[in-house]
Structures are given as C-alpha cells and as structure tokens.
Write a structure and sequence with these properties.
Helix content of chain B: under 10%
Shape of chain B: globular
Low-confidence stretches of chain B: none
Helix content of chain A: under 10%
Largest sheet of chain A: 6 strands, mixed
Largest interface: A-B, 20 and 23 residues
Strand content of chain B: over 45%
Order of helices and strands of chain B: EEEEEEEEEEE
Shape of chain A: globular
Radius of gyration of chain A: 14 Å
Distance between the termini of chain A: 41 Å
Oligomer: heterodimer
Radius of gyration of chain B: 13 Å
Mean pLDDT of chain A: 94
Mean pLDDT of chain B: 90
Amino acid sequence: AQKVTQAQTEISVVEKEDVTLDCVYETRDTTYYLFWYKQPPSGELVFLIRRNSFDEQNEISGRYSWNFQKSTSSFNFTITASQVVDSAVYFCALIGTASKLTFGTGTRLQVTL
Amino acid sequence: GAVVSQHPSWVICKSGTSVKIECRSLDFQATTMFWYRQFPKQSLMLMATSNEGSKATYEQGVEKDKFLINHASLTLSTLTVTSAHPEDSSFYICSASTGVGANVLTFGAGSRLTVL
C-alpha cells in the first residue's frame, strides 16, 4: 500500500514570505513518481512537477523549488517570495507500479497582503 | 500539451435522476482514464480506472451500479451517476494517461454535481 501525508492542513503567510509545504510518503515500490499539483478555488488541478524515484536532484523553477530526500521519504515544496496568486490547495501525490495516483490530504495556502 | 476536456463543468439535478459526465482527451489517445471524487475541503479519492474497450475497475467501497463508467473510445470516457441523491453531490474529476510508463496524468477541470 502507498500513502502520502501532508501534515500541514492550512498555512497562512504574508506576501513575500517564503513558505515550505511538507510531504512525506510511504511505498514499497522501488520505482515510483512523486508529483505536486496546485488546485486554485476554481477547482482544476494544475500540474507543477513530477520527480522519479531515481532522481534526487533538487529542482528550481522560478519561485518554486522542490527538495526530494529518499532517506526521509520526503518531497517538500518551497515557494519563495509568496504572492497572493499562490493561494490555493496544494496536493502531493505518488504513483507506483500499480499505476494508481495516491493523493495527500492537501495543504491550503493562504497568502495575504 | 495534452488537454483533457470535462463536461459539464457544473450540473444541478433532482434527486432520483441520472447524470452523465464526459471526459475527453482532445489531442491524444488515452488508453486509461481515471475518475476521482472530491468532497469539499478534502482530498481526491480514486473511484475507478477505466480502460478503453474493457470494464472499469472500481476501488473498494465504490458502487459500480451507482457509478457507471464507459470507455468506448480512446478519447472518451463517461461517468453516469444513476439515481442521484444529495449525498452524491461532489466534485468529480477525470484524468487521462497515454499508457504504460507515461506516468503523467492530465486532469480535466472537474465537474461539480449538486443533487437537490
């Protein structure tokens, strides 16, 4: 069985602050993929990143960065200099050999002025 | 990039009626489509996996007679909520995969169902 845990239910920050969203996963598969999705109030899921289990390189894309550590089974997501438009629910997800995408419970990020 | 269109985006129906939601892959062929359900302020829960030309595989606890899934072509999967009741009110999202090894799912924009 696989499981994704996002311990932070809600986070509130002031614009321009940095914020890190935590994600811890469990899987018995040796090959798997990790994802982050953004769900704005409109409801659609916006794909942010995919990382396979053999690539532990951290990644930076603009204000977004991801820290993948297999040793702690974590795949954390940091937003630098947050903006109001970053307000959304963020989901971490995992897919393994069973090809079923398992979502975490999500972290609601509120960025205020 | 790959686009998945979901229709309708929102629907209101009376209790006891059936509602059909369509999920189309617009610019690619999707051998597998997935249907998720999301209650307010909760996560997405996989309901079923739909493979073109074969019966859908339902997750434990999902009533297959209640949620009929048809994947008749490589670009279309439909979810029919039969005899809908207020507790079926939810946000339904589909996603499509291009096949084995792709491991990248494209999601539709979701369909919000309200049963009165």
